[in-house]
């Protein structure tokens, strides 16, 4: 079995060196301290193109907070990087850990539904062609729906979300890979080794925590097996999360923003039913699939709003990160399709 791999661009270590040394965007001393290294050791590793483990990659993404680092990890996969959502507000307060978890996720689902209905109402008024004065409000509504759905995922996957990152937590990510892909997914280790382009013995060393995955292997892992639980574990404590990458080709073949939005609304209603169902292993699997399906449809709706909204008015308006960052979901989709 052969998997398509993203085209090789710059190596991860070279990208880190460029950001820290050439562009001097962050103090090397503080980054080295976060990695439990002294600055001289970090410089040496950058010069020698030393490998960074998944735990160290997570620390670099957290401390450097440069969009290029997480984008490098997920390029070519079906996962797109966005900024971590702010706490969801319902009424006068924010949802926090003191509230009952079941109530929190249900309130988030209701807020996602309310925001999407608001966006659909505006789209129906505009007949799928966003008026310039309506576009920011409707894009904000879909972003609110996306953030609420992401909050549900983060509440459901609390295992590593609040853990401080430690460069010495060797084997944590590798154990989760074994649990998700091998134990739960039934994937044979030889098939995983083939997908990663390494031998069975080398994979066994990685899965045992003796040798960490390299950055290139990590990227191939997400290309071949883009499970959001693995991404959430890697990005825990960073400013980033992932969503299903928008499907622009589907939008270009007849799915208008309104039609995609109604599909997303139906998926959110299905999600509410799944949240209300009795807890079981099967229910949890259904819940994950339904949640990711809803996130993917909202992302595709946002992408199609960008391009449908640009008709007759020049270039399309880029989608924003949750914090207003400068890399659009549309750009990530185009990069992934060309990779």
How does the SSE layout of this entry go?
Layout: H1 12-22, H2 28-34, H3 39-47, H4 54-64, H5 68-74, E1 79-83, E2 89-90, E3 93-94, H6 101-126, H7 135-156, H8 172-184, H9 189-196, H10 200-207, H11 215-224, H12 228-235, E4 240-244, H13 248-252, H14 257-276, H15 281-309, H16 329-338
Antiparallel strand pairs: 1-4, 2-3
Helix pairs in contact: 2-3, 6-7, 6-14, 7-15, 8-12, 9-10, 14-15
Helix content: 55-70%
Estimated share of beta-strand residues: under 5%
Report the sheet with the most strands, covering strand number, pairing sense and barrel closure: 2 strands, antiparallel
In one word, what is the shape?
globular
Query: Cα distance, first to last residue?
Result: 19 Å
Number of E strands: 4
Low-confidence runs of at least 5 consecutive residues: 1-8, 91-95, 159-167, 309-339
The total count of helices amounts to 16
Structural class: mainly alpha
Q: Can you write the helix and strand succession as a string?
A: HHHHHEEEHHHHHHHEHHHH
CA-based gyration radius: 21 Å
């Amino acid at each position: 079995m052969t998997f398509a791999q993203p085209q090789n661009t710059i190596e991860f270590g070279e990208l880190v060196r460029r950001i820290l040394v050439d562009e001097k965007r962050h103090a090397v001393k503080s980054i080295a301290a976060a990695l439990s290294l002294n600055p001289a050791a970090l410089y040496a590793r950058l010069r020698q193109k030393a490998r960074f483990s998944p735990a160290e990659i997570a620390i670099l993404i957290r401390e450097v907070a440069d969009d290029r680092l997480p984008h490098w990890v997920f390029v070519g996969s079906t996962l797109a990087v966005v900024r971590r959502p702010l706490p969801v507000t319902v009424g006068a307060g924010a949802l926090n850990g003191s509230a009952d978890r079941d109530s929190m996720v249900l309130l988030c689902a209701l807020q996602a539904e309310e925001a999407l209905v608001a966006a659909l109402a505006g789209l129906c008024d505009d007949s799928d062609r966003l008026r310039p004065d309506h576009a920011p409000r409707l894009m904000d509504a879909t972003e609110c729906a996306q953030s609420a759905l992401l909050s549900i995922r983060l509440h459901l996957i609390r295992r590593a979300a609040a853990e401080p990152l430690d460069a010495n937590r060797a084997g944590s990510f590798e154990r989760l890979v074994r649990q998700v892909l091998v134990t739960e997914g039934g994937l044979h280790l030889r098939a995983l080794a083939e997908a990663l382009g390494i031998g069975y013995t080398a994979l066994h060393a990685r899965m045992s925590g003796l040798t960490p995955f390299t950055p290139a292997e990590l990227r191939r892992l997400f290309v071949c097996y883009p499970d959001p639980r693995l991404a959430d574990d890697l990005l825990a404590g960073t400013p980033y999360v992932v969503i299903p990458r928008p499907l622009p080709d589907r939008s270009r073949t007849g799915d208008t923003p309104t039609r995609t939005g109604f599909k997303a609304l139906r998926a959110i209603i299905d999600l509410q039913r799944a949240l209300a169902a009795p807890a079981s292993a099967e229910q949890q699997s259904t819940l994950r699939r339904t949640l990711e399906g809803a996130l993917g449809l909202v992302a595709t709706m946002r992408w199609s709003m960008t391009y449908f909204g640009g008709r007759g008015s020049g270039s399309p308006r880029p989608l924003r990160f949750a914090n207003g960052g400068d890399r659009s979901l549309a750009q990530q989709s185009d990069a992934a399709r060309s990779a």
